[in-house]
Amino acid sequence: MKIVLLLLVIGAAFALPQNKINSNLAASFKKNGVANIFVSMREQISVPFASLKSKSYTSRDEQLNTVSQTFMDYAASSQKAVRDLLDSMKVSYTVLWITNQIYISNATEQIAKAVAAIENVREISEDFLLPLDNFESEIEPEVAEESSAWGLDAIEAPAAWELPGKLKLFLTDY
Prior knowledge:
alpha+beta, flat
């Protein structure tokens, strides 16, 4: 009876990291050998939000700096084990502190399994491109005579509008 229980515990320990690897990603590893992956941490970004709500700030700059530094520190803390592992394996990665994720280009299945074995990793999923149909807007941008008043010349908007095959409809919050 003890041997069966021990085998179940060992089997669960080995199966657990695999469950963190998205099934589409596992299929990509089998097909391509490598994949671009996102490592999502168990600690969510809602945690640092709670600590920031009660603070008061003397300026907008102070608030922005405090918020970004808090998120960067939180990501550094919660991602430490993964970063240390990747550094020891000499794997390059990009830290996405705003979402508390790590992006790894051309990761192997071995790398993904090693990362999945870390306790505070929630999920490992594949980065993928979603192809869209070609879209040509019938709306042509209107360029005012004084386009530099809106900063359009500074960002070279008129030149961008003339590029072939590019999306010509831009939406902004402003």
